[in-house]
Amino acid sequence: MNQTMPVLEHVSDLRRRLLIVAATLAVSMVVCFLFVDHIYLALSNHSGEKLAILGPGDILSIYVKLSAVGAVAVTIPVAAYQAWRFVVPALEERERKVALMYIPALFLLFLFGLSFAYFVLFPLMYQFVLGLSAGNFELVITANDYFTFMLNLCLPFGLLFELPVVVLFLSHLGILNPRRLAKMRKPAYLVLAIISITITPPDFLSDLLVIVPLIVLYEISISISRFMHGRRT
Fold first, then answer.
1. Once rounded to an integer, what is the mean pLDDT over residues 186-204?
2. Which range has the top average pLDDT, 24-38, 142-156, 180-194?
3. Alpha helices, H only, the chain
4. What is the pLDDT of residue 5?
5. Cβ–Cβ under 8 Å, residues 110 and 164
6. Strand partners, 142
7. Which of 11, 108, 178, 193 fits a disulfide with 226 by CB distance 3.0 to 4.6 angstroms?
8. DSSP summary character for residue 142
9. 138: Cβ–Cβ under 8 A, 6 or more apart, which residues?
10. Three-state DSSP class for 52?
11. pTM for the full model?
């Protein structure tokens, strides 16, 4: 019975922390929804014209999407902190301080990835796609399509830019090491190239603007893993 108590306590603690994360996400989404008009105006400035909607359902769909993205951004540091609190009993004092540094890093890298995609990649790709229709179509851009195109590009970059922190954490646990990452370099480059080609228009400049940051992130991850592995040994 005494052996099962710690397990039950861990399960209870995990459930409590998941509830905190879920509550944070829900509350953040409500707050973002209250200010969604401002978010909409800020993000629609690349459209170049007033966006159309096809029905009232589009309005709700767009506002929910934008509120959800804002809520995820707010929830990331809270989720990271709750994960840290969950594993902190098993860590030494030095490891606790190092793990605590992951929280702001995750948040800042997520925002940096979103910003890079929104301010650099999205305008380029949006104008490229519009240029394909010049003289051939009567173009009517719906707000739903505009924001779907934007989020499908920006959200993956927000997550991909957290790769160095994830590698650092896994290297700290001993799951990854620089030798393994170096051996995976060629297939990793291939995967990153496929990702860049998939989410960008079919021109060399757009592919280059995507693949270069992703490769740099991977190389940074290898350096981070090498540094952490050296400290462990």
1. 76
2. 24-38
3. 4-34, 36-43, 56-87, 93-100, 102-116, 122-132, 143-160, 163-172, 178-183, 185-199, 204-232
4. 46
5. no
6. 52
7. 178
8. B
9. none
10. strand
11. 0.71
Alpha-carbon span 222 to 114, nearest angstrom: 23
Of the spans 15-19, 141-145, 225-229, which averages the highest pLDDT? 15-19
**d(C-alpha 214, C-alpha 191), whole Å:** 10
pLDDT category, 202, cuts 50, 70, 90?
A: low
Structure token pair of residue 221? 């991850």
What are 233's two structure tokens? 């040994």
Average pLDDT over residues 175-190: 81
CA distances from 107 to 18, 31, 102, 176, 185 (A): 18, 19, 9, 22, 26
* 3-state SS assignment for residue 61: helix
- What CA–CA distance (Å, rounded) separates 11 from 215? 39
Long-range contacts of range 195-198, CB-CB < 8 Å, 24 or more positions apart?
Answer: 195/156, 195/160
